[in-house]
């Protein structure tokens, strides 16, 4: 029970400001808080500086808690001065310290309001006030308390509240689905309320499944009632919500939680939302997150309910209500795995199958592969059987990467298994093998058998529910119908065994014919069971004449006997009363459909239970002496049997008109009393006497089986005259003979018995709707079969008589059967008798007459009932009665399935797909019972499986054909079939594909020297769309290239090729094209030649002009006879010595136009001979005689050098490589000299073909010399000199001196560089700087002297000179001259004691912009810069890995106004490393560095 908070507008005790604590200042200015839901009142308009009104930074959170738990609210307030916090509630006092406690924590600044052991009456709306002198803040919070258990004080309290008109407390929250603990005992067949709640929240496609689950089969009734309930529910929902949509039932998520969701808008945002499970309210939270199991959160319009930590007990029926109205209901079921998935070992490119069986139908399982959810697609197939119990996952085209753990999840239950993929060892390396068509895996068990067993269990439970519902409805219908008042009469109507009883009874369930029967136990017309009683001496009294639909039995008298219960016509239970002497009064003559029994006499004997007209059971009572009173004359639909006497014999159970079983009793001597004359729909058989014989079972009119008894001597009593719908047969005597089985009116089979001597008794007179045949005697003859049968009446065949007589009493030759009639159409029921007799028609027990759309006619022995226009009310059980005979059949009125015209029109449109695509068909229809949906393709029914997927939903069916082929084109038909008929809808599936190849063979229509015409036939299959054109390609013989000639229209199937060369042969291939693409080609079988072939004569014998090791030059003369056809070129062939194969050096389509040719495809030292053929338009003619053998080698020649370099400069320390190429034949001997002397041992000489190389690994200045190469062979010799100079950067010159010789000229002299004597190629460069231009310029270059005269030296200008030494490696550092100019000759001027401030601009070097990191690719250019300043101007040096690179030619280095740059044209691998820039002047030093990484 859930205690809801009641929100009222009044102020109760404890609500609002206290008179003690509050001064009543509540009039002020409303302010807005940053926290939603907080109301702030400010007392003054402007707050003093640094002061503030109270506010909440954390407000209390609404709480739903179980009774007896610890409840608390927390709040944090701010304000200056510090506010005072007070708690209150709307409907009560919070002053009781045992129930309410207010606390404050100064460390966390939290105010806590605690309620230990919370009670239901504490559920309320609570308020928290925070106040200081400048204002107050207020917030409300709701506490809901869930009550536990039943409270004895509830009922009186609710009565008092009702008396006080306090209805809010009386209307407690209850779900329409009652909790299981409070669920009242359900009546048998009553429908669970959950059924309707689920239907109102479910999709229409789920109606059939829900009805099947709850055992509801009447869909019309269900839909009618559901629509009424939905209208009422929507009206109730409209009071609280609008736009209710997107109802999604509960399902398991991938994270292991379960959730359901729906969307709606609350009309009143303050409306309360409640959750129920199985009718019991469950607490949930919005803010606490993981602290509670259940959570309801809102996202926009969507409300999502979720629960975590799923357990089996979480299964149940969940509901969401807004206030008192249900919005959504869903059922959460837990299923288990009956068969789990097993480990699968598959080969590469093979499909793997995981399959399992679950305990309850589930439309979809969640499949996971390597912790990732799997969906239907190109890689995975997810299959579900029709009963939704077998689930399969197919991993298609398995590769090694697919191996891992795969899992199937059904709710909280799951199972997993490994997929092991083995590589195909037989596959060729580097090639992909073809996909295998086999499947690996499976559970290894008969899943279908397990699923069928589980389905049988589910069906059995479903059928039990259906039977209960059906029984409940029938009981309700019978209770509503008007019944005759019960009558009780004396039980003696059937006591006398010789009395005649005449009974005529017609009710709703059975119709008995008017019959007069005399005998011991006769005239028993009963649909139940009539049996004789048992006397103390062992004998049973007769049980005859009891007309009962129930059970009629004698009562018990005080003396131990049971009073007779005869003739009881009762719809209930009629029993005799109990006399004071212990006996019961007779319960006879009672017309009862229930049970009529006699009383018990004090002597222990039962009173007679005779003459009871009952549809139940009529049996004799038991006397105290052990005997039962007679149970005779009982007209019963049950069983009539004789009683058992103490001597072992049974009283006669004859004449019982029963739909049950009439059998004789057993006497103590072993014999049974006669069971004759019993008109029974059951079985009438004779009893067995103690001597082994059975009493006669004759004359029994039974729908069952009448057979004679067996006597102890082995013989059976006669079973004759039994009118039975079953089987009447004679008994078998001990001597082997059977008694006669004659005269049995049976709808079954009447046959004679077999005597021990081999003969059968006669089986005559049996009126049977079955088969009556004579028996076979041991001598081979058949007894007479005179049975009148609607099936087959034939006489038995004897050896001395071919056919026995066929004759008998009236009977039904053609009865009624169950039919289905179409609504609005006529229906006709016909009964055919073997004689002309009257009859009556009944429907559901009520007599029928002509009129009201029904016609009843009779034509001789044919009775017809015609319904002119069938309606729903015409459905029911129809019975035809004629005398003792009756037949029945049920008529059911319904409609043939039909399609909506719009849906039929849409379905009739062809579905057009491409090859390899999926084709889908969908056909909606109205849900119906007993509807069978079948799909056909070209008249053949399609079954689910393989590439065919058939989905059957209650209101539609879908057909999916996967990976369609061209052969799948055809007529697609859906058939809806029910007992009333069938309807079909057809569509066409057109699978488009490229056309088939044109039909061959290709015919040659014409061939001349200029034209070839060919012809072909259209393709057999156009691929579903018409051929648009044909494409023709041609290949010349001897060529591999196919050339497109053009295309022709689809109407034309021939082509003329006018671009042909006479004598050449061509092959053609033709393609057919449609919108889907090109077909396969049709190719000519043989090449077609243009015109007639005319070949040229042979040219002259080829001559070898010259030879070399790489080339042989040939020449020849044209052929003398060209046959009148122009020669277009020649073909040259070669043959290597000692071989027989001639190899063409040029193709026929690439002729040599001249009469000479250079053969370059030769091997040095090999010998060849050549021949030539002339080529004309017909091809290559005869070959010429072969040439003389020619060897591929160079001629002898004197050595000569090719383009050598005569001067080489190398930096000291680097390696020296001198490469000289030469030509000579034969190969020469190479010698190297240094200054005409042999070279040192450490100098390497490398000789290869055509080149010699001298290598000095690490050079020194002393290696500078003239090196001479000498090449000599048998023809001659050659020499060549190479000057190698090993040097380094020169050292700077000595001090510079300036001297003016004449006006305007200054002589500049310097001391020579120390390297001048070592390097004769060293010279000097002079640079000049003046104070006007302030730039350095070169005024002299290539000076080999140590002096230079500067011209145009002007007075008043300062000049500076620099002298550099330069050689092949570069410039030296400069030598600086002294300053020359205006200040050099100026006399210092005295300041006369006045000091002046000197300004100095000198500063040490500094880095303004450092170097950056660079990572250029190999071969790219690089530009590296930095900025340096300093005064005087610093000298900048670049270093790579601590090696100066200023003079390295691979680096272009500049310094412009302090911007230092380095440029590399193409970056090499050895350019990588640490680069450093060092700036130095007289005042100091600065440097920066970076790294260069070269990428590949």
Structural description of this entry:
By secondary structure, the chain is mainly β. Helix content is 6%, strand content 41%. It has seven helices and 115 strands. The strands form 27 sheets. Strands 32, 35, 36, 39, 40, 42, 44, 47, 50, 52, 53, 54, 55 and 56 form a 14-stranded parallel sheet that branches. Strands 1, 2, 3, 5, 7, 10 and 11 form a seven-stranded mixed sheet that branches.
Summary tags:
1496 residues; mainly beta; 14-stranded parallel β-sheet; seven-stranded mixed β-sheet; 115 strands; disordered N terminus
Tally of DSSP β-strands: 115
Q: How many strands, what sense, and barrel or not for the largest sheet?
A: 14 strands, parallel
* Outline type: flat
The computed structural class is mainly beta
Residue fraction in strands: 35-45%
Backbone CA Rg: 61 Å
How many separate helices? 7
Distance between the termini: 78 Å
Compute the average pLDDT: 74
* Unreliable residue stretches: 1-26, 150-173, 484-807, 1385-1391
- Residues in helices, as a percent range: under 10%
Secondary structure: elements and pairs:
Elements: E1 2-3, E2 29-32, E3 39-42, E4 52-58, E5 63-66, E6 71-80, E7 84-89, E8 101-105, E9 110-115, E10 124-132, E11 135-146, H1 154-163, H2 167-170, H3 193-201, H4 207-214, H5 219-237, E12 241-252, E13 258-266, E14 273-277, E15 280-281, E16 294-299, E17 302-307, E18 316-322, E19 325-332, E20 337-339, E21 344-347, E22 351-358, E23 366-369, E24 372-373, E25 380-384, E26 390-395, E27 404-410, E28 413-422, E29 439-441, H6 447-480, E30 500-506, E31 511-518, E32 527-531, E33 535-536, E34 538-539, E35 545-548, E36 550-553, E37 559-562, E38 569-570, E39 573-575, E40 595-597, E41 600-602, E42 616-619, E43 626-627, E44 634-641, E45 645-646, E46 648-649, E47 662-663, E48 667-668, E49 670-671, E50 684-685, E51 689-690, E52 705-707, E53 727-729, E54 749-751, E55 771-773, E56 792-793, E57 812-814, E58 819-822, E59 827-833, E60 840-843, E61 846-847, E62 854-859, E63 862-867, E64 876-882, E65 885-894, H7 901-908, E66 911-914, E67 919-924, E68 932-937, E69 940-941, E70 948-952, E71 956-961, E72 970-978, E73 981-992, ...
Parallel strand pairs: 5-11, 21-28, 22-29, 32-42, 32-44, 35-44, 36-40, 36-42, 39-40, 44-47, 47-50, 50-52, 52-53, 53-54, 54-55, 55-56, 58-65, 66-73, 92-99
Antiparallel strand pairs: 1-11, 2-3, 3-11, 4-6, 6-9, 7-10, 8-9, 10-11, 12-13, 13-17, 14-15, 14-18, 16-17, 18-19, 20-22, 22-26, 23-24, 23-27, 25-26, 27-28, 30-31, 33-43, 34-45, 37-41, 46-48, 49-51, 57-59, 59-63, 60-61, 60-64, 62-63, 64-65, 67-71, 68-69, 68-72, 70-71, 72-73, 74-75, 75-78, 76-77, ...
